[in-house]
């Protein structure tokens, strides 16, 4: 597996496999006991279209499970749906 530093990911666009643009990566959460990466914390798009059907935290950000990542290049592509 290729190592990628978190600081190189922050600010990248988060896009679904169906083409939906969710927003920009703000940070990544981690389980402090296991060290496992948990969620991508995403600042939603300004137009509000990415917010539909996605629960937001108290700061208005989406949490996408880390396991949904498909690819990381110029943008981060995540699985959508079930």
TrEMBL record:
Domain PRC-barrel, chain residue ranges per copy = 1-80
Q: What is the superkingdom listed in this entry's lineage?
A: Archaea
PANTHER family associated with the record? PRC-BARREL DOMAIN PROTEIN, PRC-BARREL DOMAIN-CONTAINING PROTEIN
Protein name as it appears in the record? PRC-barrel domain-containing protein
Write down the species: Haloterrigena alkaliphila
């Amino acid at each position: 597996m290729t190592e990628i530093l978190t600081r190189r990911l922050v600010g990248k666009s988060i896009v679904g496999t169906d083409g939906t643009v969710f927003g920009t990566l703000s940070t990544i959460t981690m389980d402090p006991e296991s060290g496992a990466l948990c969620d991508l914390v995403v600042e939603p798009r300004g137009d509000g279209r990415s917010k539909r059907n996605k629960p937001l935290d108290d700061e208005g950000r989406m949490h996408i499970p880390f396991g949904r990542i498909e690819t990381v290049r110029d943008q981060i592509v995540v699985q959508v749906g079930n």
